Amino acid sequence: MDLFKNLNENQIQAVKAINGPVIVVAGAGSGKTRVLTHRLAYLVEQGVAPENILAVTFTNKAAKEMRDRVDNMLKENNTSTIMTFHSLCARILRTEANLLGYKRDFEIYDDDEANKALKKVFEDLKFNNTSYKIKEFRNLISMVKNGKSFMLEERMQKDFNLCYEKYNEQLKLENAMDFDDLLLNVVYLFNNNPEILDKYQRKFLYIMIDEFQDTNTIQYEIVELLGLRFKNVFVVGDGDQSIYSFRNANVGNIKTFIKEFKPLQIVLDINYRSKSNILNAANSLISNNKDRIKKDLKSVSDAGDLIELKICDTAQEEVLYIKNKIERLKSLGYNYDEMAIFYRRNSLSRNLEDMLLKYNIPYKIYGGLSFFSRKEIKDVIAYLKLVINKDNLWAFKRVVNEPKRGIGLATIDKIDQLINVGYSLKEAINQVNNKKVFEFLRLIDDLKEKMLYAKSMENFIDIIVKELDLMTYYKDESDRIDNILELKSVLAEADMMYEGESFNKLEEMLMYLSLRTDEELKDNDVKSVSLMTYHQAKGLEFPIVFMSAMEDGIFPSSMSDFDNADLEEERRVCYVGITRAKEKLFLTMAKRRMMYGEERYAKPSRFIREIDHKYLNNVDDPWKKHTIGLSKENEKETQKYTANDYNNDTYSLGDKVNHKLFGDGVIVGINDNLLSIAFKEGIKKVVKNHPTLSKIEK
């Protein structure tokens, strides 16, 4: 097989560079997977034993794809090791576990099992009577194991250190490791057992790492330990596509590798995916990032169409525009599955779904559920249904013990059995005579009473969130909170759409949602438009891409205003979105958008302003007004909060706080007016005294 057929000059150079350290800076759509697979086959062709080759990817799917490609190229049996970091470490530890005091059949704990182990530690340390939370400490433990540093208040730091020690002891007692331990224990094993490190260094003489920009500190250390002896380390990555810092990815590993290994540097800058106008727009955007290895991608394709920019008055106009474009493109011969719509956060899918469903355009939520199929949304809707009708059996069974209130399956089964022999729900509940079930029904009555006096329908959601304490319940799942708050917009729209009293409108809305959900359950095998977040789009490509809600405060997020590193990552996310498009790209925004039940005014995303306008269509005179700001009468309305809205809390290191989006966290740093807060999904920077933030009193 001719391994160099259809490879360009730089790709051939990368494939042939088999001795010594190499870093390949592989731009979007530049054929990096082809380079990796051809290089592995070339190593074997040059006499390297397959069992001496290690190739590490980030997903099992990518590992399988690479193995399948290599198997097709090699005539002999492929015994090379192609797997993820975690799979590699698990395999090593299965062999060497006894050196760490574990049995070889150790368990690998997922989050639920790890939380149970920590719960046992909390009980032993009598932390249950403190303000400490299990999920909060689990997050901090994971941060420590991933090399993240933070500071806590002195007493809390002491208690956490003890808890960390006891948690690890408990795991060892149970012959178990959590996911972080798989990486950390291999580093410990290698550092404390030179003969074991020597064995694996000699086994893996040639190392290849895919998506190197997504490695974290511990993963880099594993690469360093395995590769520093023979230095045949070949890494492929693109700092411009590093978008996973919330998973502890460290884009700085690229520069560290260059400094420590002094590798041959090869740039793959020929793009085989996108039209030139799309690619040039991406280049002009990402050039605004300063902390990067400079490169400009060049397309093998023609210029193609200009990127179409559409500034709409409202979010409804925006989704209608997208719908019309989809229908037009379909009439021109494109299939629905060749089109994708991207958004920055999951809750933004709702308006898009409504419009596509209304006009019978098939769609699918890539890597997730449609808005109204998400657990938290179905739960809140169930509560609303019970407020309207306490005899709704589906709603009762769904939330009678959600959030958990100690009502077991046995109780629900008894109620079910009575209903099956002719009892009504009310009669069955009375017959079972369970105190906690009666308390649940009183809760429904209380919700209804409060809703009767609500100022508007969107306040129904506020009432449910407050009475069920959902902010605390979902404090570690900011996406779920975001989705629940977006339900306020659904009710606000229903308030305007339907006639009658609030409960009549609510009943109409719930009936519509039931019909809507039935439509969503229809055949999903047809070719469909893909809806997804930018992170889900990584690694994919589509002929047609719509990037929606391109508005400051949404994309980039308002949270990135206070930290240049966060802003640069947001810009990389946008770059990834643009470079998914092969033929046509549409950027859309709305001047006014209802979010969380409130209508908000917006300006175009700064990322639109950073793209060289010669690659954009429809940038006319009115654009100047939008770029600089809105009209004077609306200017103040672009600010959601006034000075009176800001709280006056004072903060110290170690203080526990609650953020309306990110949940509970701990202050680990203070820099003038900026707080660094450790939340479950990582450390975020928040302006001190912002109204979304409140101190949790001790």
Give structural notes.
The protein is α/β, with parallel strands linked by helices. Helix content is 46%, strand content 16%. It has 28 helices and 23 strands. The strands form 5 sheets. Strands 11, 12, 13, 14, 15, 16, 17 and 18 form an 8-stranded mixed β-sheet that branches. Strands 3-2-6-7-1-8 form a 6-stranded parallel β-sheet, with helices on both faces. A 5-stranded antiparallel β-sheet has the order 22-21-20-19-23. The longest helix is centred in the N-terminal third of the chain and has 20 residues, at 154-173. It starts with 8 loop residues before the first helix and ends with a strand. The model is unreliable at 627-646 (pLDDT under 50).
Number of strands: 23
Structural class: alpha/beta
The biggest beta sheet, please?
A: 8 strands, mixed
Q: What proportion of the residues is helical, as a percent range?
A: 40-55%
Radius of gyration: 28 Å
Report the end-to-end length measured between terminal Cα atoms.
69 Å
Shape: globular
Strand content is: 15-25%
Average pLDDT for all residues: 88
Q: How does the SSE layout of this entry go?
A:
Layout: H1 9-16, E1 22-26, H2 32-45, E2 53-57, H3 60-73, E3 81-84, H4 85-96, E4 107-109, H5 111-124, H6 134-145, H7 154-173, E5 176-178, H8 179-192, H9 194-203, E6 206-209, H10 217-227, E7 233-237, H11 253-261, E8 264-268, E9 270-271, H12 276-286, E10 298-299, E11 307-314, H13 315-331, E12 339-343, H14 349-358, E13 363-365, H15 375-388, H16 393-399, H17 409-420, H18 425-432, H19 435-452, H20 459-468, H21 470-473, H22 478-497, H23 502-520, E14 529-533, H24 534-537, E15 542-547, H25 564-578, E16 581-595, E17 598-601, H26 606-610, E18 616-617, H27 622-628, H28 632-635, E19 656-659, E20 663-671, E21 674-679, E22 682-687, E23 693-695
Parallel strand pairs: 1-7, 1-8, 2-3, 2-6, 4-5, 6-7, 9-10, 11-16, 11-18, 12-14, 12-15, 13-14, 15-16
Antiparallel strand pairs: 16-17, 19-20, 19-23, 20-21, 21-22
Helix pairs in contact: 1-2, 2-3, 4-8, 5-7, 8-9, 8-10, 12-25, 13-14, 15-16, 15-19, 15-22, 15-23, 17-18, 19-20, 20-22, 22-23
